[in-house]
């Protein structure tokens, strides 16, 4: 299908839906600064079918939330090392109007601008360069900022996030790009054979009836941080995650992948 347009998210959080309907399930989200290709528009012209550049995820957004850009600007964004925000929430001035954005948003500011910006921004919050890879301690600090964030299917923000969105955002902020869904993340990086061989920062994924249904990030001392009801820290053993209240296994361990040492 021919690409008919390009866009960049200029709102704090935009739902991306499975079908072109407000009642359709949310499959992921666009955060401020995420850029995308438009594959088509719905028959009534009210919805845009988008493919997000960083993870190639596809879905539908309300056309009123689409911010069009030129192909030249789209390609410039692809090659620019912009800043990614590290505060839970921060404020920017966008075209002289204030806007609150969430952690993991991409702002088009870098140390040296190599092209003429099409838009006006002012930002003085905490951030790091998008392409700068950081170590486990940084990744852990980012993950802990999401603690107690409520679980939300398709969410990617501290005000609603799912398990794979949580893993993707924590690694993205730390300088590593992994796919969107847990089943895809189970193929990322390098396989770790056993839990006893795992290192802090490894991804652990979990299955039910043969399908990958959950993912979390391994911490020290047999702990894992993951989104289940809310972003929480639980114990992990060879069989899986232990629910601290019931003392039973809530998720059955299927495998472990190493991401940090792959780059």
Give a summary of the structure in a few sentences.
This protein is mostly beta strands. The protein has helices spanning 71-79, 136-145, 163-173, 182-185; strands spanning 5-8, 13-17, 26-31, 35-41, 47-52, 58-62, 68-69, 83-85, 89-94, 97-102, 106-107, 121-123, 127-129, 156-157, 160-161, 190-192, 203-208, 211-218, 223-228, 230-236, 240-242, 249-258. The chain is 13% helix and 40% strand.
Describe the structure.
This protein folds into two domains: 1-131, SH3 Domains (SH3 type barrels), CATH 2.30.30.40; 136-262, endopeptidase domain like (from Nostoc punctiforme) (endopeptidase fold (from Nostoc punctiforme), Alpha-Beta Complex). With 263 residues, it is mainly beta. The chain is built from four helices and 22 strands. Helix 2 (136-145) packs across helix 3 (163-173). It has helices at 71-79, 136-145, 163-173, 182-185; strands at 5-8, 13-17, 26-31, 35-41, 47-52, 58-62, 68-69, 83-85, 89-94, 97-102, 106-107, 121-123, 127-129, 156-157, 160-161, 190-192, 203-208, 211-218, 223-228, 230-236, 240-242, 249-258.
């Amino acid at each position: 299908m021919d690409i008919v347009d390009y866009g960049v998210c200029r709102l704090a959080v935009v739902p991306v839906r499975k079908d072109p309907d407000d009642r359709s399930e949310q499959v992921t989200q666009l955060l401020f600064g995420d850029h995308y290709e438009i594959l088509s528009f719905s028959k009534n012209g009210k919805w845009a079918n988008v493919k997000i550049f960083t993870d190639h995820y596809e879905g539908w957004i309300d056309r009123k939330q689409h911010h069009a850009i030129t192909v030249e600007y789209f390609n410039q964004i692809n090659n620019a090392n912009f800043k990614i925000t590290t505060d839970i929430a921060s404020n920017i001035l966008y075209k002289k109007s204030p806007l609150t954005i969430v952690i993991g948003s991409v702002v088009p500011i870098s140390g040296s601008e190599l092209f003429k910006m099409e838009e006006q921004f002012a930002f003085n919050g905490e951030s790091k360069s998008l392409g700068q890879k950081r170590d486990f301690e940084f990744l852990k600090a980012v993950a802990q900022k999401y603690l107690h964030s409520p679980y939300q299917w398709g969410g990617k923000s501290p005000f609603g996030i799912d398990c794979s969105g949580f893993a993707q955002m924590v690694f993205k902020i730390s300088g590593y790009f992994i796919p969107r869904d847990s089943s895809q993340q189970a193929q990322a990086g390098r396989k770790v054979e056993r839990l006893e061989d795992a290192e802090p920062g490894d991804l652990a994924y979990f299955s039910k009836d043969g399908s990958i249904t959950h993912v979390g990030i391994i911490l020290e001392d047999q702990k894992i941080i993951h989104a289940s009801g809310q972003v929480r820290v639980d114990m992990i053993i060879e069989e899986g995650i232990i629910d601290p209240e019931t003392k039973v296994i809530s998720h059955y361990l299927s495998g472990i992948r190493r991401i940090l040492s792959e780059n």
